[in-house]
Amino acid sequence: MANFLKTEMLYENQYTWRRDGGDGPYIGKIDRDRLDRDEGYEVLDFANLCLAENSSIQDLHKFERLLQEKLSPSVVMKKEIVEFLKKNWH
């Protein structure tokens, strides 16, 4: 995976940069399948997976706004989030 998007490119500034209290003591498949949208490192990794390498900073900011403002907080599964992004990326 190419990490072409960097921390300083993120629009939202309310991220935490370590595991928060909402994370359980689990690792592995469950953690890989879910996205914690207030953890900056998870959002950045997910953006690097979802966006094309030629994406602009504006694309990243749009990605963040969709995650933070348009997507229901109850949606945490990455597969569902990808479907939401596909439907709402216009």
What does this structure look like?
- By secondary structure, the chain is mainly alpha-helical.
- It is built from four helices and no strands.
- The chain is globular and about 30 Å long.
Labels describing this entry:
globular; about 90 residues
Structure summary:
With 90 residues, this protein is mostly helical.
Strand proportion = under 5%
- Helix-and-strand structural type: mainly alpha
Task: Tell me the helix content.
Answer: 40-55%
Rg estimate, integer Å: 13 Å
Mean pLDDT: 85
Distance between the termini: 25 Å
Shape: globular
Uncertain ranges: none
| Biggest beta-sheet profile | none
Helix and strand sequence:
HHHH
In total, the number of strands is 0
Summed up, the helix count is: 4
Question: Can you lay out the helices and strands and say which pair or pack?
Answer:
Blueprint: H1 29-33, H2 40-50, H3 57-70, H4 78-88
